[in-house]
Amino acid sequence: MCMKAIFVDCPTGIAGDMLLAAFLDLGVPKKIIEEPLSSIGLGNTFSLRIKEANSLGIRGIRVFVEESEKKCLPIRLHEIISIIENTNWSESLREKVLNVFTKLAEAESSVHGEPVDKVHFHELGSLDALVEVVSICAIVEHFDPIKIYCSIPPAGSGTVQTSHGLLPVPVPVVLELAKRNKIQLAGGNDFPKGELTTPTGLALMAVLVDEFSQPSYLDIEAIGIGLGHRSFDRPNLLRVSFLKDNNYSKSINTDQGLHWETLVLQETWIDDATPEDISILMDELRRGGAVEVISHSILMKKGRQGICVKAIVSSEKAEDLRLIWLSKGTTIGIREYSTGRWILPRRSGICSTSLGDIRVKEVRRPDGSKTIKPEHDELVRISIETGESIEAIRREVFRQVGRFSPKEEWST
Q1: Of 345, 358, 343, 342, which is closest to residue 403 (Cα–Cα)?
Q2: How sure is the predictor about 188, in pLDDT bands with cuts at 50, 70 and 90?
């Protein structure tokens, strides 16, 4: 089963039980989580109690993992790896679950100054954590979304009682997970006090989420609400939304329609580089994955002549480009803005003409018609080889449009 996108909205934090509750509120069949849990010997050790409840008048689902018989649970990473690798799960499900526990173990290792294979999971090796991690990964595997978004998780504040005693919030493992996986945590006095984002919840998001932001468009198909167990001055909830078309920025193969792609605009103003230096920087940005790079003259402070350089890049490659800006250029800072574009399906191919085979791009227009455009490099190549003008070659391509042979599938 393949769906479009998932948006996890976590105004009061992320915990494994809240995330699982939100998915169950969406009507996820229990067998999806029962089968993988049974295959690792947990089927008879717990029961999952699902309760419809409300938090300050907002309805949702609260889940309780209740132990029905005592079982010796794995508390070290190598024990969990041994159990998971011997399951009959799909390779991608094994990878998701192992990745979550590996991230947890590595964060614990850094916090406690111990080798990864010596780390005890403590609370993370509890029955609750095993059930939540396996269940949520199995649900995501079942739905196979194109993309998962998550709002920026709140850090929380104050203190929490742990097996290590009283710890400040965010607890050290949460901070380490955030640092290692480059996840921003929202702070400030606008959030309730206490532990809002748990290690298990953040590790799950670090593995499953593609982008920590709200989608540009919210065309919602279904909403599930998972409730937390503590009382705040506001509803303690987490929402999982299934989104319809045009709500995800990851490009996909498609046979029809416009698609929205979320992009990042990066720019800087430079007054201490030569035109040759600017040209090299722009080439580096293009090679680094920029969709487009432009520049224009500007008048800066004190009447200095400068150059504004702008790069448009996908959100996935934005971090790579930041390093290029700051290591290949003279600038000491860059600005970033969220933007996007509507794009048409296109595919590359060959158009056979009397002047030879020419690489072209075919585009499907909103009314279903198709147009082709020869690649500029190809026009230059044919012009050099034949002595014909570029305009004459372009006209020849348009006359032979019926002889287009696609070399790839439609994409956006």
Answers
A1: 358
A2: confident
Measured between its terminal Cα atoms, the distance across the chain in Å is 22
Shortest CA distance to 349 belongs to which of 362, 336, 367, 338?
362
| CB burial readout 297-336, b (16+ within 10 A) else e | eeeeeeeeebbebbbbbbbebbeebbebbeebbebeebee
CB neighbour list of residue 263: distance below 8 Å, 6 or more residues apart:
249, 291, 312, 313, 314, 315, 338, 339, 340, 341
Amino acid at position 59, single letter: R
Domains of the chain listed by start with CATH number: 5-243 (no CATH), 259-343 (3.30.70.1380), 346-406 (no CATH)
3-state secondary structure of 64: strand
In Å, how far are 186, 335, 344 from 277, measured between CA atoms? 38, 20, 35
Query: Amino acid identity, residue 293?
Result: V
Banded model confidence at residue 72, pLDDT cuts 50, 70, 90: low
Q: Are the C-beta atoms of 228 and 45 separated by less than 8 Å?
A: no
Single-letter amino acid code for the residue at 146: I
C-alpha to C-alpha distances, 353 to 14, 347, 350, nearest whole angstrom: 59, 19, 9
pTM: 0.63
> E-assigned strands of 172-257?
194-195, 220-227, 237-243
**pLDDT of 135 over the 90 cut:** yes
